[in-house]
Structures are given as structure tokens and as C-alpha cells.
């Protein structure tokens, strides 16, 4: 049945005549040596193999121009399908200031791919500090944060952003005298390739690139429903709209992981409902994984699939929204134990 090709730990079984509609395997279609798509199989997922995705892996050395490739990877000690679904892993993070002030201690949790995960905690619990560790602003005293296998605490913030991690801030960090469009274009900075000279001439590649970036920004404007204010200075806009613009700037980076620091803070009921709807759309329509800090319990319980709760730098709960809501430690931290009746 074709031929077996071994390349490191990757093994490929090639059969150009294999019927993709009836074969009960994980199938990866390719053309001219470039893999195009894949489809999982229950038979493989239930067996001792770990299915690996290779969307853009080149297989020109296989010498096969077309057909179907069956790829599988058997890690030492068996499969760990859960590990493959984790986009972000935080392992035993600790942050200490001046060897005295303990900000975070032993924080460990994961963010599954395609989920909305919430970080809960009172002011001073360490939520924003944890965001700063993930985005490379802070270096942890101990532990590590991994994004798709990359150790983030060894990287600078712009390198982390280049991997596909974008964030908003607790306080609005926009250029108040610039228009909405210009603020959103700043989010495209990492995708700009033309130099100063080419950009100054504004011809050829520079013109095509500028056009493409502006089209992307217009898509975000439509997505966030801010068409009417697109040419207005940000400083002249209501607070709730400015929060949307900051969200749009983060989306302009085309992130796979979006960090939202209190996206609904200071908003009225209508604005809060709008931002919750946009977050759901970011997950469902754009396919972006979301990790957010939020104090509004209603928003968290409505849209978050998992919740991690911090209290004075220590994680006290981690689970589904229903599990966390019923956790005695969370109830005590948020509401207090209350007085006992004699």
C-alpha cells in the first residue's frame, strides 16, 4: 500500500489511490508536495496514536505529486491528546518584587484552544500582573508560560506579539488625537514589510501593502460596528466606543490568543451586553481563543467556558463556570463567610 517514509519521528503512509470518503483514518490531502487539509478519525483517536496536524509542512522529498498521506506520531509513553488542545499553559508562575512583596505564587492553569477563559479576582489579586507575565512585560521569578510550545518568559513583548498574542489594557491606551482608522492601523505594524524609502515613495509594493492593511482595518470596523466614527479622533468618542477601538486594535494584529484586561469595566448595561456579544463573535466567527480578566460575574458566567480565580496572588479555584460559582473558597473570597446564627 504505497510506501512508508520516515522523517524523524514523523511516519507517512502514502497511497495515491486511497478513497478519502470511505477510509477510516486521519487523512491529509496534499498537492505538489504541500499539505492542504486534514480530517480526524475516531479509530485513531481512540487508539495508542497521537494525531498531529501539519498544515504547511513540505513533503517534496516524498516524490509524490498528489494523493493522500496518512500521518501519525507516537510519542514516548503513549498519547496526550489534551496537551495538543492547550494553546496557553501557565506552569507554577511566581512573581516577587524586591525579594519581599509576593505578587503571584504557584499559579498553574491552561487555556484550551478555541475557548473563552476568565480570570477572576478582587483588585490586587494579581490578574494584570499575570497578563504582564504572559505578554512579556514582566519576567517571572519562577515558573514559565508556554504558548504553543514557545516559552514566553524568555521572549520580548514584540516577539510574543509576533507569535499571535495580542492584548488590551485595563486603562485605555489609545492615541487620543488620532482617528479610529489610524489607531487600528497601528495594530497592523507587525505585518508591515516595506521600508522607509519605499513607504515614502508610496508606490508598488508599499501601495499594495497599505491597501491590504486598510481593507483589513475596514473589516474590523464593520465587525465592531463603529463605521460612523471611523474618521473621528478617538479622544472625542464616548468611553464605551473607545473600549471597542482598543479591542479592534488588538484584533488588527490577527491574534490566535487574545488577552482582554477588564473589557467591560466602566460600561453601562447596554455597552456591557455589546462587548460580551463581540467577545463571543471573536471566538465563534474569527476562531480566536480568549483569556480575559473581568469583574462582572454575569458576563463571566454567561460567556466563559472555564474560570480561574485568584485571591491575593494565589489560585483558589479552576474549573467550569458552574463549578467555580459553587466553590466554597470563591464564595468566601467574594462574599465572606457571614455571621453564624446562635
Task: Tag the structure with descriptive keywords.
single chain; 342 residues; alpha/beta; five-stranded antiparallel beta sheet; 12 helices; 15 strands; 31% helix; disordered N terminus
Low-confidence stretches: 1-84
Structural class from helices and strands?
alpha/beta
**Rg result:** 23 Å
Number of extended strands: 15
- Portion in helices: 25-40%
Number of helices: 12
Strand order of the largest sheet: 11-12-13-8-14-15
Distance, first to last CA: 79 Å
Q: Tell me, what's the shape?
A: globular
Average of pLDDT: 76
- Helices and strands, in N-to-C order? EEEEHEHEEEHEEHEHHHHEHEHEEHH
Beta-strand content bin: 25-35%
Largest sheet, if any?
6 strands, mixed
How would you characterize this protein structure?
The protein has 342 residues and is an alpha/beta fold. Helix content is 31%, strand content 26%. The strands form three sheets. Strands 11-12-13-8-14-15 form a six-stranded mixed beta sheet, with helices on both faces. Strands 1-2-5-3-4 form a five-stranded antiparallel beta sheet, with no helix packed on it. The longest helix is centred in the middle third of the chain and has 19 residues, at 205-223. The radius of gyration is 23 Å and the shape is globular.
Which secondary structure elements does this structure contain, and how are they paired or packed?
Layout: E1 3-7, E2 10-14, E3 27-31, E4 34-39, H1 42-45, E5 66-72, H2 81-85, E6 86-97, E7 101-112, E8 116-120, H3 127-134, E9 142-147, E10 150-151, H4 157-163, E11 165-167, H5 180-186, H6 196-201, H7 205-223, H8 239-251, E12 257-261, H9 269-284, E13 289-293, H10 297-303, E14 306-311, E15 314-319, H11 321-325, H12 328-335
Parallel strand pairs: 8-13, 8-14, 11-12, 12-13
Antiparallel strand pairs: 1-2, 2-5, 3-4, 3-5, 6-7, 6-9, 9-10, 14-15
Amino acid at each position: 500500500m504505497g510506501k512508508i517514509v520516515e522523517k524523524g519521528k514523523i511516519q507517512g503512509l502514502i497511497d495515491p489511490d486511497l478513497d478519502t470518503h470511505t477510509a477510516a483514518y486521519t487523512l491529509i490531502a496534499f498537492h505538489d508536495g504541500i499539505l492542504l487539509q486534514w480530517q480526524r478519525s475516531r479509530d485513531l483517536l481512540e487508539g495508542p496514536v497521537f494525531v498531529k496536524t501539519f498544515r504547511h509542512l513540505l513533503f517534496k522529498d516524498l516524490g509524490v505529486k498528489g494523493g493522500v498521506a496518512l500521518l501519525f506520531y507516537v510519542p514516548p509513553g503513549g498519547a496526550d491528546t489534551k496537551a495538543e488542545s492547550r494553546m496557553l499553559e501557565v506552569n507554577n508562575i511566581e512573581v516577587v518584587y524586591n525579594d519581599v512583596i509576593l505578587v503571584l505564587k504557584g499559579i498553574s492553569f491552561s487555556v484550551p484552544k478555541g475557548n473563552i477563559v476568565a480570570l477572576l479576582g478582587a483588585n490586587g489579586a494579581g490578574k494584570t500582573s499575570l497578563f504582564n507575565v504572559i505578554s512579556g512585560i514582566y519576567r517571572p521569578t519562577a515558573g514559565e508560560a508556554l504558548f504553543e510550545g514557545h516559552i514566553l518568559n524568555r521572549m520580548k513583548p514584540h516577539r510574543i506579539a509576533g507569535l499571535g498574542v495580542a492584548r488590551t489594557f485595563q486603562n485605555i491606551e489609545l492615541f487620543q488625537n488620532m482617528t479610529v482608522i489610524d489607531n487600528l492601523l497601528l495594530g497592523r505594524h507587525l505585518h508591515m514589510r516595506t521600508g522607509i524609502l519605499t513607504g515614502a515613495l508610496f508606490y508598488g509594493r508599499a501601495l499594495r501593502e497599505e491597501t491590504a492593511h486598510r481593507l483589513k482595518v475596514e473589516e474590523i470596523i464593520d465587525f465592531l460596528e463603529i463605521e460612523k466614527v471611523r474618521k473621528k479622533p478617538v479622544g472625542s468618542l464616548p468611553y464605551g466606543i473607545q473600549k471597542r477601538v482598543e479591542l479592534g486594535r488588538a484584533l488588527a494584529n490577527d491574534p490566535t490568543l487574545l488577552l482582554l484586561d477588564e473589557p467591560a469595566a466602566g460600561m453601562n448595561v447596554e455597552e456591557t451586553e455589546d462587548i460580551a456579544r463581540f467577545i463571543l463573535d471573536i471566538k465563534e466567527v474569527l476562531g480566536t481563543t480568549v483569556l480575559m480578566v473581568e469583574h462582572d460575574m454575569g458576563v463571566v458566567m454567561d460567556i466563559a467556558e472555564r474560570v480561574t480565580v485568584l485571591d491575593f496572588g494565589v489560585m483558589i479555584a479552576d474549573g467550569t463556570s458552574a463549578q467555580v460559582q459553587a466553590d466554597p473558597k470563591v464564595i468566601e473570597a467574594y462574599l465572606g463567610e457571614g455571621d453564624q446564627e446562635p
